[in-house]
Fold this sequence. Notes:
The structure holds two protein chains of two kinds.
Chain A: E1 5-7, E2 10-14, E3 19-24, E4 31-37, E5 43-50, E6 55-58, E7 61-66, E8 71-76, E9 85-92, E10 102-103, E11 107-112
Parallel strand pairs in A: 2-11
Antiparallel strand pairs in A: 1-3, 3-8, 4-5, 4-9, 6-7, 7-8, 9-10, 9-11
Chain B: E1 4-7, E2 10-13, E3 19-25, E4 31-38, E5 42-51, E6 54-57, E7 65-66, E8 76-78, E9 87-94, E10 103-104, E11 108-112
Parallel strand pairs in B: 2-11
Antiparallel strand pairs in B: 1-3, 3-8, 4-5, 4-9, 5-6, 7-8, 9-10, 9-11
Amino acid sequence: xxxxxxxxxxxxxxxxxxxxxxxxxxxxxxxxxxxxxxxxxxxxxxxxxxxxxxxxxxxxxxxxxxxxxxxxxxxxxxxxxxxxxxxxxxxxxxxxxxxxxxxxxxxxxxxxx
Amino acid sequence: xxxxxxxxxxxxxxxxxxxxxxxxxxxxxxxxxxxxxxxxxxxxxxxxxxxxxxxxxxxxxxxxxxxxxxxxxxxxxxxxxxxxxxxxxxxxxxxxxxxxxxxxxxxxxxxxx
Lengths: 113, 113
């Protein structure tokens, strides 16, 4: 079942600009993760933010989480052509027995030189 | 190098001809999972395994089988493939349980004619 929904579906920017992608979800979570996928390849984990965290940084990435609004955002600063990829959010429900990570449909980011 | 290895990378087959997609990880991960990715539908989980001999259905298990006889291997079996199983398949693993970050294989593009 689809939990996270990314917005926008596609984003086109110039190198050096910032890119912001949003993710909304419906039910309580244990954590929310962002992944990157280069055309047809495997997903690569970028960052994980737990439900008791509000903001996290990793290099040029900044992730925020607002559990009251059930939303998260991924900011990529000073984007590069190499950042061109699809970005997915994935939510992990509260831990109670076994749980599954649910992915959204992704945002396609195009960074032009 | 820590990795999840899937084979083959590309596979073209005909309806009804049994096939197996192999997946192996060298990180001693307990959790392994199979996803399929289709345009407009995002990633959907097929099956997952919490440990050796422990498997369970994901969101779209129909037409697929899995086995987990060894910790490192988690093959996906299509006993009678049909054209609607044409898709991009990913194997993924994580250290202990779902909810932790996933390591993905490079993907298998399957076409069923």
